[in-house]
Amino acid sequence: MPTKCNLCSTKYAILKRPKTGNTLCKECFFRAFEEEVHHTIKSANLFSPGESVAVGASGGKDSTVLAYVLKVLNERYDYKINLILLSVDEGITGYRDDSLETVKRNQQQYDLPLKIVSYEELYGWTMDAIVKEVGLKNNCTFCGVFRRQALDRGAALLKVDKITTGHNADDIAETVIMNVLRGDVARLRRCTSIQTGSEGMLPRCKPFKYTYEKEIVMYAYFKKLDYFSTECIYSPNAYRGYARAFIKDLEAIRPSAIIDIIHSGESLSIKKEVKMPVQGLCTRCGYISSQPICKACMLLEGLNKGMPRLGIGKTHKVRRQAREKEAKEKAEGKAGAPAIDF
User: Fold this and answer.
1) 207-217 as b/e, with b when 16 or more CB fall inside 10 Å?
2) pLDDT attached to residue 280
3) Mean pLDDT, range 38-42, rounded to an integer
4) Under 8 Å CB-to-CB from 16, ≥6 apart: which residues?
5) What percent of the chain has a predicted confidence (pLDDT) above 90?
């Protein structure tokens, strides 16, 4: 039997919100979804008038809905911010090239400027080439490090004030679980932050911090937004996938589990005696790093030297092999692998 909308009580409901359990009509769902994002933005004071804001756009559901909602709210509440779409082309044939076509359509649909930066231009490597070198086991490590830096470098070219990403509540809950399982105290403290960048990095913010993935999908579906839904062909074995499956099982039993995990991460107290990494700058590329040489430069050095495990291996064997190879190259008069040129 059809039920009336819990909010307007005049129209028939077409969906039940996973987050609240309310049954809503289409228009009331749109409004509730948008108002909650607006409340998150205002509560955290994410934007200031006159700022240029890059939206990390992959063509997927999260970034597509984020770009659309930010445009709507910017016009409705007069944020006075300038929105720009920023995409990273990792160089994954049959995946990223198709998703970038979606981003280009979004550019026309939303009437927003678009900038695309690529791994090949920035690092001299595509993910297809990297996977041939490292295989499928550790490829996500390379992609994650390079992608984060590529977004920053693209944002620097655009001279924006902030970057927004489509990370949703499910993503953040997964990250909390992953950091708990890894015992990563430093990242556990930061992973629930709605805005990062206090250490000198370009600020990044997550307007969808409290927004459920299911509701983003429902919003995109009922709004008939144009987005790319295929998963990355190189990520089936990613560690995050196991955390995601765990979160989904919890949500099926207790829908509030996602927000509960986020609140738990927010309230965790870090012992004073735990020494936190000191942020500095990479001596090679100038990117922020807690080590003399940043992770991206280490990974790139390993790739260029034909020793891809150099950047991810922690064993003495891998590092000894690198030193031996470098000594041999010097003896033969060969130049070392180039660093990232900023």
Assistant:
1) bbbbbbbbbbb
2) 79
3) 98
4) 22, 23, 24
5) 62
Structure token digits, residue 130:
């990297």
- Rounded Cα distance between 250 and 212, Å, is 14
For residue 337, what pLDDT is reported? 44
Reference 91, options 116, 113, 68; nearest CA is: 116
Amino acid at 187: R
Please give the Cα distance from 30 to 24 (Å, whole number).
9
- Phi, then psi, of 34 in degrees rounded to 5: -65, -40
**DSSP element (H, E) containing 116:** strand 114-118
Q: What is the pLDDT of residue 277?
A: 61
Beta-bridge partner residues of 56? 86
Indicate the length of the chain as a whole number.
342
In this prediction, residue 270 carries a pLDDT of 53
Crossing angle for the helix pair 61-77 and 96-110, to the nearest 10 degrees: 20
Residue 197 confidence class, pLDDT cut points 50, 70, 90: confident
Global pTM value: 0.86
- Tokens encoding 249: 């099982």
Q: Tell me the residue type at 86.
A: L
Task: Please return the burial class of 179, using the count of CB atoms within 10 Å of its CB with bins 0-12, 13-18 and 19+.
Answer: buried
